[in-house]
Amino acid sequence: MSPSPKGAPAGRSLPAKVLGSQAERLAEPQPPRAGRIVAYVVLFLLGLVVSLCGCFVQALWPPFGMLLAVAASLGLFYGGLRLTGTKLGAGAPLGGWFLMLLVLMSPRPKGDFVLSADPTSYAYLFLGAVGGVICATLPTRGGFGLGVPGPKR
Predict the structure, then answer these.
(1) Is the peptide bond before 63 cis (omega within 30 degrees of 0)?
(2) Contact at 8 Å (CB) between 3 and 24?
(3) Nearest-CA neighbor of 124 among 75, 40, 68?
(4) What's phi and psi for 82, nearest 5 deg?
(5) Closest CA to 30 of 141, 143, 144, 150
(6) What is the pLDDT of residue 3?
(7) Where are the domains of the chain?
(8) What is the rounded distance in angstroms from the CA atom of residue 76 to the CA atom of residue 16?
(9) What pTM was computed for the model?
(10) Separation CA 51–CA 57 (nearest Å)
(11) Lesser CB count within 10 Å: N end or C end of the chain?
(12) Which keywords does this Swiss-Prot/TrEMBL entry list (predicted)?
C-alpha cells in the first residue's frame, strides 16, 4: 500500500480511518492539565444529560430512537476520548451516563418509572455500556489518570 499524505496507509477501512491507529493516537498532542480537568467535569455533566435524553428518546421512537440514543452516547464517549487524549476522557461521561441511569431505573413513590423493562430499553443499556467500555479501552497517549504519560514500554 502506498502511504497517504498524512503517513497513513491508503485504502484503510472507514472504522480504521475514524478511530486511527495506536501510533497516530500516541502522536496527538494533549491539552494542558487544567483544561483536561475542566473537560472531565463538563464531560461528566454531559453524560448525565445524554443519558436522561436518551431514556426519553429511545422510548419515544422505538427502535430508531434507541439507535439515535446509543449513537449520541457513543459519540459523547468517543468525543471525550479524543478531546482529552486519555481514557478518563471516555470514562467521565460514561460515569455520568451510568449514574443517571441508576436514578432513572429506580421506581418513584407513586409507582412510576422512566426506564421501562422492554427490549429497546435493555438494548439501550447494553449497547451504551459496551460502547462506553470499548471507547474507554481504545489506545491513547495517557493512561487512566489525568493524562500523565505512562512508563516507556
Answers:
(1) yes
(2) no
(3) 68
(4) -75, -35
(5) 141
(6) 52
(7) 33-106+114-136
(8) 19
(9) 0.78
(10) 10
(11) C
(12) Membrane, Transmembrane, Transmembrane helix
Q: What is the DSSP letter of 109?
A: T
Question: Rounded to whole angstroms, what are the CA distances from 41 to 52, 83, 96, 140?
Answer: 17, 13, 10, 19
Q: Which positions of the chain have pLDDT values less than 50? A: 1-2, 147, 151, 153
35: which 3 cell numbers?
A: 483544561
Condensed to tens digits (0 to 9), the pLDDT of residues 20-42 reads 777 777 777 778 888 989 999 99
The CA distances from residue 46 to 8, 76, 126, 128, in Å, are 33, 8, 19, 14
For the record, the C-alpha cell of 106 comes out as: 429506580
* pLDDT at position 10: 65
Q: How many CB atoms lie within 10 A of CB 140?
A: 24
**Which pLDDT belongs to residue 31?**
80
Residues 21 and 28: beta-carbon distance below 8 Å: no
Distance of alpha carbon 75 from alpha carbon 37, whole angstroms: 20
CA distance 130 to 26: 24
